[in-house]
Amino acid sequence: MAYNRSYNPDELPRFAEPEPKGGAPASSSRYNSKPPPPLPQQSAPHRNSDPRRLSPAQQNYPGTSPMSPPPPASGPRPTAHNRPPPSSRPPPSPAPQDGSDPTLLPLFRAVDKDGTGQLSEKELSAALVNGDWTAFDPHTVRMMIRMFDSDRSGTIGFQEFCGLWSFLASWRTLFDRFDKDRSGNISPDEFSDALIAFRYRLSPRFVNLLFDTYDKRNEGVMSFDLFVQACISLKRMTDVFKKYDEDRDGYITLSFEDFLEEILKQLK
Q1: Distance between CA atoms of 192 and 98, rounded to whole angstroms?
Q2: Which of 48, 165, 218, 232 has the highest CB neighbour count under 10 A?
Q3: In 10 A of CB 47, how many CB atoms?
Q4: DSSP conformation class of 53
Q5: Beta-ladder partners of 72
Q6: Where are the alpha helices (DSSP H) in the chain?
């Protein structure tokens, strides 16, 4: 698996992108008025029988398989046999939208209270709710603006809003797939299953720490917005580590100032 040396904090790994299907990303009835497509059959996530036999890099980097060497610094994309099944992959990185979805125009106009044609953070928050109608966490809203604000205006135009809506619909489909008990939330066990399906090999202690960090409501479960926030944040942190781990051995040497700089970037 080749790692791109250019750093994009919002880019999901190439191995995590769905197989091309010649159509638009799957949508969810909770985010789109169109009827949702039938869900594909879920593939069982690959589990290592003995993760202790893996090197540190193999245990922590997504996309590695048991007893395989650490990913090379350059080379072709991974083959299909070691990629997560299409039904268990995060949506692809946001890309510029060539068109808009006219069915979303009434919703956009309804939340565009000042009629500027641009949604502020407060206005966007009014359009984004979880399955139980609770509001999105403010940091998730800011994350969405950062990812889709292509002109860096600090607001979201209609075309950008359409891309954001489609992206969240794809995440919702993924969320529903891992919400096996249909509770509307992700439990710690379901969260662990999701990370395994994304090819992360993390210790139970760290998975619990990560879950507790994003269980901001202290309910012992993770709502949709926090699930998206946790997964995207983990991907960003993984990219930071890969940028410094040039030999892909799972260890880096980092100066204190470089460390602080990377932490500050994640807080933006």
Answers
A1: 36
A2: 165
A3: 11
A4: G
A5: none
A6: 56-60, 105-111, 121-127, 138-148, 158-178, 188-197, 204-214, 224-244, 256-267
Q: How far apart are alpha carbons 13 and 90 in whole angstroms?
A: 9
Q: Is 74 exposed, middle or buried (0-12, 13-18, 19+ CB in 10 A)?
A: exposed
Minimum mean pLDDT among 4-13, 27-36, 40-49, 185-194: which range? 27-36
Is the pLDDT at 14 greater than 50? The verdict is: no
The DSSP output letter for 268 is: -
Whole-number Cα distances in Å, 267 to 60, 158, 222, 233: 22, 27, 21, 10
pLDDT over 50 (residue 179): yes
Tokens found for residue 150 = 């292509």
Per-residue model confidence as pLDDT tens digits over 203-229: 999 999 999 999 998 999 999 999 999
Residues in Cβ contact with 79 at an 8 Å cutoff, skipping those fewer than 6 apart: none
Closest CA to 163 of 176, 150, 154, 174: 150
CA distances from 241 to 55, 62, 248 (A): 16, 12, 10
Q: How far, in Å, CA of 167 to CA of 107, rounded? A: 16
Tokens of 78: 């991974």
Q: Is 8 helix (H, G, I), strand (E, B) or coil?
A: coil
